[in-house]
Specification:
The protein is α+β, with helices and mostly antiparallel strands. The protein has two domains: about 100 residues, 2-Layer Sandwich (Fructose-1,6-Bisphosphatase, Chain A, domain 1), CATH 3.30.540; about 180 residues, Mog1/PsbP, alpha/beta/alpha sandwich (Protein Transport Mog1p, Chain A, 3-Layer(aba) Sandwich). The protein is built from five helices and 15 strands. The strands form three sheets. Strands 7, 8, 9, 10, 11, 12, 13 and 14 form an eight-stranded antiparallel sheet that branches. It has a four-stranded antiparallel sheet with strand order 1-2-3-4, with helices on one face. The radius of gyration is 32 Å and the shape is elongated. The termini are far apart.
Length: about 350
Amino acid sequence: MFKSLNKGFSAPVAITIIVACAVLTGLIVRQCGFIPEMWAHRSAYNAEIKTELYHEIKAEAEIYYMENNDTYTGFTIEDSLVPPECSGDAYTVQISPDGQKFLAYARLCPPKGNTFWCVDSEGGAKEIVADSIPTDVYNCSLQKEAPPEDETADWETYRNEEYGFEVKYPEGLEIKSEINIPTYNPSDDPYHYPNNCYYMHALEKEAVRLLSEVIFATEGKNLGISIRVYDNLDNLSLNDWLSWGEEFVSRHPECEHTEYIRTKPPSNQAEIYLTGIKGIKGVYFGCCLICYTEVFIPRGNKVYRLAVVGSYSSDICVHDDILEEIFNQMLSTFRFLD
């Protein structure tokens, strides 16, 4: 045999090399076959992650938004499909401070490396190659948003030192009334109180009585946006606190629509977060076709109630559009002093 000057190896040597390579390749595949199998397994997981994020979790977020008064605040992802042999990352969700946008993502398994699959409330769905996802972005483009203009910057501030809160209100609204209800004393004349029902209410359950109210309204109006502070001396849960009035009215039906007394829980209840505290938002239908959208926030041994007045028919509470917008802006400025 001789070495070929043109090919570099004689035909038998070349054949031997090819066979050796084939044998070695077979050994590698047999010994390391788990690698392509694992990659295939992880690729299947990646496809499942993408499908679940894009179709199921995104849909769940939109349903949550509609059922929680147009906010994503509080939305979470409980389960994770990410297999243990991956990075161990679970699904992550990021909600914008105003509750109006969300970003959900998961790290994909190798062979993708540092790659995430991302979906957002703006319709985005894409792979992102990065070491990590910033915690202060809420879109798959990872673009940070400029802070929105503060429309309440030049509003007046109402501050209540006694009950520890403040709130901003715009020009055009004025404080129509500000009252503090006297502390109940069994020796007092019932007429010392706003009405006889309130006296009986205080007599039976001082622990849930009204303490204070301030009303903001436009010129010529007596009703508008109000803030009330109630006692919660027994530290009842918010649901139990709201339900106590029903028991009172069952004993005193003539007091069902009495001013200053909570006689029933609000309708159409939903969770809401204010100053980071979970509360209840709902609608109260009173007498004379007057209704209120109400927000109740428990804090310590007090319950704070913020409400905007409306009118109703057929169990639908309708508000003046401008007043309702102001109410929502005032909610965003409400804060406790400590």
